């Protein structure tokens, strides 16, 4: 039968073009872990015996390019990969998602101002070598252990509950390791946050928020739902008054004022947005801009409440003064901290539990390990302050480290344990370029000063919004997405936001 | 506190603008059904006591417009709603999805040629009255029972496992009822199809296929995966050689030849598409076109296998001759049949278990009930053949029925039990406009003859592909989606297909 001939033909075919993968497990059954692992809940695991036997990518040989392994695909990791010279290095990226999220525009996708795909850049578009070079790879997996002495990491594939194959462990040897695993939302130990609140850091978070919002809009219109229940369902509560919380509140109020009024006329009078913040909103901006933001948000119908969340239940949150706030949608954006995996790593630590690095972003006490982005911070011994968990910090670090590794790679010191005599050059210095935040209704804040007391441009209003959009559209990585962000903005203006619940 | 003032203010506010909803359940706890109901598994349920008490939309009063209730939001239901005169009628649509799927373009979304949202039209865009008129509604719910004698339907909200509110039952009284609930994929009682295969009828099916395909492409690249396993993971099997199966196979081979070769170079030689069909592929087209399609598909690397599937396991299917076919992705498109809910309805039936209708698409033996689209068929007594389950049949029936109801509505016979003396006019006559199918590589078949023996245009090749695209882009309902389909086609040509796994 043709089918069988095909199978046997394929089986006999030599597949010699991937010489570096060893297959000692070919005949072993795969691991039988059916649960879904995410990097947020993982802690570093001791290397198990069978993985020490070498299934995976072996150490590079002298006739091969040195291999840089990058853990993570956020701002830091992707900017690093983009900058790395692939004539010198092979790149292996290990991450549970195959794209980078353009986070400053993520809030816009929750209500349909932008399409989800417009803010996601596949890693292969950022660094094409990863999908083309025979020695470069992208692995859809979580890193579950680092053995810095053996120069290898242990990984486990994610299977995302689609049971086409069981989770699979493998190791990857590296010449240089770049840990860029980011951070996770802080819940401050408050009960119920993880179970009931939505975060806003990944595309699937934005998708979840959108689905919940549209579901609540439709369910609140059903006969027999009490007025009280309608109000609860349509009460959107945002906890955390940083740029993410404020931008999301602004987008939400735009959606309500333009699209809900037009397309959910039956329930439009019941929908409300409340922003809860323990201190000041947008504390990184100066008083004048903050007052402007407060005024504009209030005008748009966003209720600003000062309070501390004590407890989160399925349909209400409880503040520390005992007030109960019923909600239909709860978005949590109170800042970030290191993940349990980062905390559990046996590496030097910076204050706050991040991986500690020196001025050149190296992790001391181990060879060839670097850490960039939200998961790392300067060691106390450097005398430097920990930098804020911002995209621009992560991006600058990625760019810097790529330049450093390119430089030492050119001297032939790209291989493991070979950089001892190499000059690393200038240490990393962060220069803050300023902050921006939209607040809805075509208004934004732009503060281009290095700090609140510094000199420079600090604007609020429509012109700032224009600067905000112009700045971000030029920052979008690929021409494809730049085109789509523009097209999405135009169609939102012309046709309104789409309300299909897909 | 401001928060409490807000709550009490809202509670005191009169909400008198929705006079038709009665709320006898305001103080009752909601129903405690936590399981997720879908229309596919529902069967009609007897009306329970409490819903007889009248929670929901009561019968219309003489000073109100008559109410047409539409069950379903597919081609038939949506075309009907679009055509209905909302100056005469109020419309209530009950459906578990708030959009219509432009099914002929759905296969293109699985591989990213088109974006999912480009093929989904929100019902409010098709019939704006549904979101604006005070007496018209869209309810995100499944119909779980029809009481044709009392002129009411019973519904239950879907909650989609987002537990913001428990499923909720309510009734809707109608003056006219239009059952347009569509069909469901036929599995012919084969074990394992529902568990392991993906269908291709809804946007979430296409999303699932895309996620699986990209997952398999990435997992197959992981070190330690055997060659055999790689081949299995990257073996895409399509069962059913109708237009859907062929178009999906064509799209898949385009994706492989253009995008996988470029972006998954490590595994590009392992990916295969097999199309399994028990008889001829594209049996509705004539021999010449079919031969052309077979040749083109084979050229594109699609393996055509004639066989009957006997059993479906998690990672392989078994054909009736005992051949085992391992797969990583299995798409099932072997035709459709009536859902258990349709079968369980106590209404006259047409051959095959569909709801039986007369020449005017009325369900005899009950007053004011009509049925259109895949869920209905002509009664044997009409002497007419059951029409094929095609979008164009459903659409033409929707259009016809809207005209009929508009006509009788103008004579004042739109209310319940008032049409006895009304002339319905010409019966429904279906005229087949022809068939089209893409087969990949910018090739398509176009057969504009009424039947295989008739006269007219029957073409295959690039010009047909041009006709195919031109025809469908003009059929897309809204200007927004027409624009996006065009833009998607252009960017696919320029930038290739997006491979972010969102």
UniProtKB/TrEMBL annotation, chains A, B:
EC number(s) per entry: 1.6.5.9
Residue ranges constituting the External alternative NADH-ubiquinone oxidoreductase-like C-terminal domain according to the UniProt record: 432-498
Cofactor(s) required for function per UniProt: FAD
InterPro entries attached to this UniProt entry: FAD/NAD-bd_sf, FAD/NAD-binding_dom, NDH-2, NDH2-like_C
Subcellular location: Mitochondrion inner membrane; Peroxisome
Keyword Flavoprotein: yes
GO MF annotation terms: NADH dehydrogenase (quinone) (non-electrogenic) activity
Superkingdom: Eukaryota
Membrane topology (UniProt): Peripheral membrane protein
One GO cellular component term noted in the UniProt record for this chain: mitochondrial inner membrane
Entry keyword set: FAD, Flavoprotein, Membrane, Mitochondrion, Mitochondrion inner membrane, NAD, NADP, Oxidoreductase, Peroxisome, Transit peptide, Ubiquinone
Matches recorded under PANTHER family: NADH DEHYDROGENASE, NADH DEHYDROGENASE-RELATED
Homology family: Belongs to the NADH dehydrogenase family.
UniProt protein name: NADH:ubiquinone reductase (non-electrogenic)
Organism lineage: Eukaryota, Viridiplantae, Streptophyta, Embryophyta, Tracheophyta
